[in-house]
Amino acid sequence: MKTTLFKAALLAAGLSLSACSIFKPDAAAPTASRGTDKPADEVSGPSAEAPSARLITMQTPAVRAYRKVGARHIYNAYPKRIYKGKIPPLVYAVVVTETDVDATGRVTGVHFSRTPSHAPEVSGKIAELIKEASPLPNPGKLGAHTYVDTWLWDKSGQFQLDTLTLGQRSR
């Protein structure tokens, strides 16, 4: 019994330590060049050195501020698609996007951490809107990063971004 408890405690401690940021590589640290002659736009195949999961940029105040800049840019790109006023209490779809932006503001990827199973067409439309609005404003010192935003999508095809939403109606 004591051995089982000890093993469980040891496993819990190991998992806790593996989640600590001091044991993870610094996302802001520059990566060393591998000396390849591939163009910057070319996507390389899988590598043993590449992480198996995408890393989302920590939501620092600078990333949250850029999120507002990016949302405002999307609102300006599609003024007729923005839902005016408070959004209904039950929106048609809620989609969480992860937008990869390079150091110049060009969108390099759109991924989803939440998609509606009842409205699979919405995610594709959102990805199109984001890519067509590219480039987003230059992120400046923030550089290339991934920022997360939530799209509140109405049945009419209009939307609000959580970053700039006016809230929801109670009825």
Straight-line N-to-C gap: 56 Å
| Total of DSSP H or I helical runs spanning 4+ residues | 3
Radius of gyration, CA atoms, in whole angstroms: 20 Å
Helix fraction by DSSP (H/I, runs of at least 4): 25-40%
The largest beta-sheet arranges its strands as 2-1-3-4
DSSP, total strands = 4
Query: Biggest β-sheet: count, sense, barrel?
Result: 4 strands, antiparallel
Overall pLDDT confidence: 79
SSE pattern, N- to C-terminal: HHEEHEE
The dominant shape is globular
Strand-residue proportion: 15-25%
Structural class: alpha+beta
Low confidence ranges: 17-48
Summarize the structure.
The protein has helices spanning 2-19, 61-77, 120-133, and strands at 93-101, 107-114, 145-153, 159-161. The chain has 171 residues and is an alpha+beta fold.
Please tell me about this protein's structure:
This protein is α+β, with helices and mostly antiparallel strands and 171 residues long. The chain contains three helices and four strands. The protein has a four-stranded antiparallel β-sheet. Strand 1 (93-101) and strand 2 form a beta hairpin. The longest helix is centred in the N-terminal third of the chain and has 18 residues, at 2-19. The radius of gyration is 20 Å and the shape is globular. The protein starts with a helix and ends in a 10-residue tail after the last strand.
